[in-house]
Design a protein that fits this description.
With 454 residues, the chain is of the alpha/beta class. The protein contains 14 helices and 22 strands. It has helices at residues 24-38, 53-65, 79-89, 124-137, 155-165, 185-193, 225-234, 261-275, 291-298, 310-320, 343-355, 361-366, 384-395, 438-452; strands at residues 14-17, 42-47, 70-76, 93-96, 105-112, 116-117, 149-151, 174-179, 198-203, 238-242, 249-252, 258-259, 281-285, 302-306, 324-326, 332-334, 372-373, 377-380, 402-404, 409-412, 416-422, 428-435.
Amino acid sequence: MAADLSQIVKAYDVRGVVPDQWDETLAGLFGAAFAEVTGAAAIVVGHDMRPSSPALSRAFARGAADRGVDVTEIGLCSTDQLYYASGELNLPGAMFTASHNPAQYNGIKMCRAGAAPVGQDTGLAQIRELAERWLESGAPAPVAEPGTLTTRETLEDYAAYLRSLVDLTAIRPLKVVVDAGNGMGGHTVPTVFAGLPLTLVPMYFELDGTFPNHEANPLDPANIVDLQKRVPEEGADLGIAFDGDADRCFVVDENGDPVSPSAITALVAARELARNGGRGTVIHNLITSRTVPEVVQENGGTPVRTRVGHSFIKAEMARSGAIFGGEHSAHYYFKDFWNADTGMLAALHVLAALGGQDGPLSALVAQYDRYAGSGEINSTVADQGARLAAIRAAYEGCPGITLDDLDGLTVSAADWWFNVRPSNTEPLLRLNAEAKDEATMTRIRDEALAIIRA
C-alpha cells in the first residue's frame, strides 16, 4: 500500500497526533527530505514545550545530518525565535510545535533561509513526496560524511534584537499582566521584558505542553477569561495573552476588555509608518476592519488587501516590500523581522505606544475602533458554491453595491461590507460582516446568514 501523508502535511505545515499519525521515524524522514529539498549545507532547528517535542526535533536533526547537513539546535524556543535564528544566521529552519492544538498533537513549521515560508507550492509538497517514498522503500543510506549537530543559545540575542526595533527606555512605568497559557511565552517574556520599565504579573508561565489551565489559543474568548479578570484586579495598565508557540499575541485593556487585532494592526501600522517617514506599504487581509486601510492612508501609507492566510501575506510582503502586515487572527508581520510574524514585537509596539502617553489603553485604541464587527461566523452547508451563487444573485446589480472575488465573495456598500469564504477543509462557509454601527451590522449579518442557511 502506498504511504499517504496527506492527513498530516497541511497547506503550511506538518501537524498530527503523536504517535498515532507520526513519530520519530517519520520526523527523521522529514529531516532528510528537508535537507534534500532546501539543498542547504546547514539548517537550524528548535522546539516548543510539548512532551514529544525534544525527541521529534532531535530525530529531524539526525535525519538532516545523515544527508550531510550541519544542524544548529537552539532547543526550547518560540516560533518567532526560530524565525529570528533563521533570519540572523541566514539558514533554513524547522520549528517543532502544534501551536495551540491539544497536547497529543505536534507539528513542524519550516522555512527557508531568511525565514522565507515553506508551503505546498514552495517545497512542502516535495518534502511530503520524498517522505512517502522513503516510508515505502526505506530511508536512504547516510552519506559518507554526515553533518554535525551543535547547540546554540539564541534567547538573549532574540530579545536584544526585538528591543533594538522598539525603544521602550523612555516610557512611563507600566504594569502588565501576561498570560502565557503554559506555552513558550513563559520562556521568552521574562528575557524580552528584562530591564524595561515594566512590572510584570505572570500567569501560567510554567512550561507545560498538557495545557493544564486553558487551551493556549487566545482568539477563543473562553481562553482569556482569567486574564480579563486579573487585569482590573491587579490595577494593571493592560494584559497580553500569547498562544502556545508565542507567535501570536492578544491584548486586553485596563478594564479587561479585548482589543481587536484590527485595532492593534492599525496602531502598529501608524507607528511603523512614522518610523519610515510616513511612507510605505501595509498589508492587511480582506476581513480586517476598514479602520486599517483608513489609518494607513491617514498616516501617508499605501494599504494592500490580500486573501486570508499567512502564505498570502508573506508573499505580498516580499513582492511589495511592505513594512508591516496584520491579520484578524492576531498574526503581525514585519519587514524588519524578515517579513515573518512575531507577536512579541507587536506587543512591544503596544507597550511603547501606551507608555509614550498618559491616557489609558482603552482611550488610546478608541481611535482605531471605528466600526461594529460580527466576528467570524461558521455555517455548515451542503453546497458551498450554490450558497455563494445565491448571495451573488441577491446583491449583484443593486445600486451602490460592489462585489469582488478576491477570497470567496465580498459584498460592499458605503457604510458596510461582508465577506463569505469557503473553508478548504470542511463543508463550511465563513461570514465576516462590518458596518458603521451595531444596528446596521446586525441587519446585514442576518440578511447574509439567511441566504447562507436557506
